[in-house]
Write a structure and sequence with these properties.
alpha/beta; 2 domains; 10-stranded mixed beta sheet; 10 strands; globular
């Protein structure tokens, strides 16, 4: 990657005192998003702003109160400053616009959101999180946990094996790697294994030949880049090269094959206004991997 040193010198979230926004609706499946927000805030010295759009559902509000108590308790132990914002969704204001309004008002360096399972409308328009990522003036992290909204489980993710797809030569991938390292050093996950994964794409009409000169050059370039990531970020990481017909299916197949606990991706493009991420490699990885997936949409990429 060119200008790697310049990219590394620019902070991911910023200096201590910068802000991370965490929108919470009140679902048990948001526990992973809460954990990732806390870890990110602690690692980068950021303050956390929790945004809750109030619901008429007593069940949702009751669970939000439980989640908030858990979050405050963890934040106190981690020495993280937490502010709570309560907002209302009106008939004329959709949920993603309410979140965007708070982003514009508080100007966080990063917004961290859970993405729920999609119905037909959400697939056509993109999820609420995708619409926020598309229109937000600052970076957005979207987390998908492969559980249903109301499946209550004991704790958040504690990844021991983290996969980071690398291949677009984008600054987003370096920042995604920083986020993965923060998670690898958190709680029960301390010293988790991180693997930088690269796919050598071979068209359907071409035989799978790993001795091809161009493929060997691409593999060598990736291994050199992966080594620089480990050196700059002061964290030993493995590198893996696989051959496949397309990136999305190849990555998700590998992730499921090695039973990875978490995928962290830096995405160098924004969701489309129509269809969101539908049909992209990112969408394939996001929805076919059996483990939680974290996507980083960084505005400066």
């Amino acid at each position: 990657m060119s200008n790697m040193d310049d990219i590394f010198d620019s902070a991911f979230v910023g200096a201590p005192g910068d802000k991370i926004l965490l929108p919470l609706m009140g679902y048990p499946s948001e526990r992973d998003a809460i954990f990732i927000a806390l870890v990110t805030a602690e690692y980068f010295g950021s303050d956390l702003i929790v945004l809750h759009v109030e619901s008429k559902s007593e069940t949702t509000e009751s669970y939000f109160d439980e989640q908030l108590s858990w979050l405050k308790e963890r934040a106190e132990k981690m020495n993280i400053s937490v502010d709570i914002i309560l907002a209302e969704q009106t008939f004329h204001s959709s949920l993603h616009k309410v979140i965007l309004r708070e982003i514009n008002k508080h100007n966080p360096n990063l917004t961290i959101m859970m993405s729920r399972r999609k119905g037909i409308f959400q697939k056509l328009r993109g999820s609420i999180a995708e619409r926020v990522a598309r229109d937000s003036p600052t970076s957005v992290v979207i987390i998908r946990s492969p559980i249903k909204d109301w499946t209550t489980y004991g704790d958040h993710i504690s990844p021991r094996k983290i996969i980071i797809p690398i291949g677009t030569d984008s600054p987003c991938e370096l920042f995604a790697t920083q986020l993965a390292i923060a998670l690898a050093n958190a709680g029960k996950s301390r010293d988790a294994e991180i693997t930088l994964l690269h796919v050598l794409v071979v068209p359907e009409t071409v035989p799978l030949d790993t001795t091809n000169d161009e493929m060997m050059k691409e593999e060598h370039k990736f291994i050199k880049q992966a080594g620089k990531f480990s050196t700059l970020l002061l964290f030993p990481m493995k590198s893996k090269v696989i051959v496949g017909r397309d990136i999305g299916r190849s990555v998700s197949h590998y992730v499921n094959k090695v039973h990875a606990d978490l995928v962290v991706m830096g995405v160098p493009y924004l969701p489309r206004k129509v269809l969101g991420l539908y049909g992209t490699d990112t969408n394939e990885i996001f929805h076919t991997s059996k483990c939680p997936v974290v996507m980083l949409f960084r505005r400066s990429c």
